[in-house]
Design goal:
With 544 residues, this protein is of the alpha+beta class. It is 35% helix and 28% strand. The strands form five sheets. The protein has a five-stranded mixed sheet with strand order 3-2-1-4-8. A hairpin with a 2-residue loop joins strand 2 and strand 3 (23-31). The chain is elongated, with a radius of gyration of 54 Å.
Length: 544
């Protein structure tokens, strides 16, 4: 846990408490008059880099309760600032505490205004802090913060009066109603002849009760729980005098027992409460009450510097982690590279052995270069059968009655080439046939072998030529519709960029050179398939 320097200011002296590791590690007292200020400056100079808080326990602290209309946050802050300037005109050390809303009526906001009415009691100590550029975190009211003590000890009643002793020989009484501070007053411990400490506590508590009752804080059934924090050595002087009444009940809080519950070691040696409050403050600091922003500027600078350092440390740690990860990856990759290099060397040795054991095939380097050059210049740009047929397949999708049976494809120097194709007869013969006139034995529609041409030298592939063999469904003897489908199919292929299509074999030859032959039957003819073939060509560079 980080160190904190807590200054506890009273009207008689300043107590310097250094909290480190959750414990009070140092304590020193400086009187407010005489040489106390010079010694204080030398002491603070040694702790000038430690975050410092000032807790006030002064007679000049004033508390006033009020209600204001319920407003939004921004409007509420403006109203509270105006109220503070009106009530406490002669000091800048002022603060407003919003405490929720009233339960009835307009449900106004409850507010407590508090201020240090005499700024001179703070001036000499704050001048030292300013001069030494101490990271000053804030000025805090001990009365306001003492509610934390009741919370930690589970002593929260509807009406609670906390009585503590200050290191300046004074008695602090702070009234809490439903856990909210409403009033606080400081009384010097000035015992008259024959008066005991308990008698002083009893008389002062009686006066406070009368004042609070005059403000109508109590109903007839209410009880004021008075919690007195006292050291065991002072208990015999206090306890016998305190007597409970119908509306007042005393609870003595043993200083050593309280210190044990709070984890304060060693326990305080007297009844003054500064070490207990400082211990609670070190564990969880309270909010700033009175310090204006200009007093806290060195703390803001320190916090910003620490935040920048923290962020830089995080980035440095992340950078180092990333560098370590990269280094480990590089080492792992280096090992992989070495293994790969060893495998390559082994493969190269095996290749060399295979090369030496393989007889030469008579292909020299010049021949290989010529072959590669020929492929790059003559073959690489040629149309493949896939690229040739894909556009045709889109046309074929439009004609479900046409079924492609086979394709003969060839790359040639011109489009007059006819690829060789062995016809396939349809499974269901059509009812009509086309016969060459003068010959019954040689029907015109009889399939014939196409493209039987002698072997030619290697083609440059400037043209792609294909023969598509297909069948078309014929309903009865409705060849007119079948012929229309085939003609539409061929026409759509011809519309493709760069393509040309012609019918080689029609489903039914109706030219004058052929005669139509069919069989009469009383039964209606069903569906049959008529074979036809189409020649399709495409140049390597499509026509525009």
């Amino acid at each position: 846990m980080a160190s904190r320097h807590i200054l506890y200011l009273t009207n008689e002296n300043v107590v310097s408490l250094v909290a480190r590791g959750g414990r009070i590690a140092g304590r020193k007292v400086f009187p407010v008059s005489g040489a106390g200020q010079a010694d204080f400056e030398a002491h603070v100079k040694a702790l000038r880099h430690v975050p410092t808080h000032l807790i006030t326990d002064l007679a000049e602290e004033d508390f006033r309760a009020d209600t204001i209309p319920h407003l939004g946050r921004r409007d509420q802050e403006a109203v509270l600032a105006r109220k503070l300037s009106q009530i406490f005109r002669n000091t800048t050390y002022r603060h407003a505490i919003a405490q929720g809303r009233e339960a009835e009526g307009r449900r106004d906001d409850r507010v407590i205004y508090t201020a240090i009415t005499n700024a001179e009691v703070l001036r000499p100590w704050l001048e030292v802090i300013e001069r030494l550029e101490v990271p000053f975190e804030g000025i805090h009211s001990s009365a306001v913060f003492s509610g934390r003590l009741l919370e930690q000890l589970h002593l929260q009643f509807p009406h609670t009066l906390l009585v503590t002793f200050t290191p300046g020989d004074a008695l602090r009484q702070t009234y809490f109603r439903n856990r909210e501070i409403k009033f606080s007053r400081l009384t010097p411990v000035d015992l008259q002849e024959g008066e005991s400490l308990g008698g002083l506590v009893s008389s002062e508590v009686g006066r406070t009760w009368q004042y609070l009752d005059s403000l109508r804080n109590f109903q007839s059934t209410d009880r004021l729980e008075v919690c007195v924090l006292v050291h065991p050595k002072d208990r015999p002087a206090v306890e016998p005098v305190l007597r409970d009444y119908d509306q007042i009940e005393y609870r003595l809080l043993d200083m050593e027992q309280v210190a044990g519950k709070l984890g304060l070691k060693p326990p305080p040696l007297a009844s003054s409460a500064e070490e207990v409050l400082a211990h609670l403050f070190a564990q969880k600091p309270g909010a700033n009450d009175f310090a204006p922003p200009e007093l806290r500027r060195f703390a803001v600078i320190r916090n910003a510097r620490n935040a920048i350092g923290t962020v830089a440390g995080v980035f440095l740690a992340a950078g180092l982690a990333y560098a370590g990860w990269n280094l480990s990856g590089a080492l792992a990759n280096r090992e992989v590279d070495l293994q790969t290099a060893r495998r390559i060397q082994a493969a190269q040795r095996e290749y060399d052995e295979v090369t030496r054991s393989t007889p030469a095939m008579g292909v020299g380097g010049q021949t290989m270069r010529d072959t590669v050059a020929f492929f790059s210049s003559s073959l690489r740009q040629n149309i493949t059968v896939t690229t040739f047929l894909v556009p045709i397949s889109t046309v074929l999708d439009k004609y479900p009655a046409i079924r492609l049976t086979q394709v003969a494809w060839e790359a040639a120097d011109d489009d007059k080439v006819l690829p060789a194709l062995t016809p396939i007869l349809p499974k269901v013969s059509p009812p009509l046939k086309a016969l060459t006139r003068g010959s019954e034995a040689s029907p015109a529609s009889t399939p014939r072998a196409l493209g039987a041409v002698p072997e030619t030298p290697f083609s440059s592939g400037r043209h792609s030529v294909a023969v598509l063999e297909a069948t078309v469904n014929v309903e009865g003897v409705d060849y007119r519709s079948a012929l229309a489908l085939v003609e539409g199919f061929v026409a759509d292929i011809g519309k493709l960029p760069g393509y040309r299509a012609d019918i080689l074999d029609s489903p039914l030859d109706i030219t004058p050179r052929s005669a139509i032959k069919g069989q009469s039957s009383d039964q209606p003819h069903g569906q049959s398939q008529a074979r036809f073939s189409v020649k399709v060509s495409r140049a390597t560079e499509p026509r525009t």
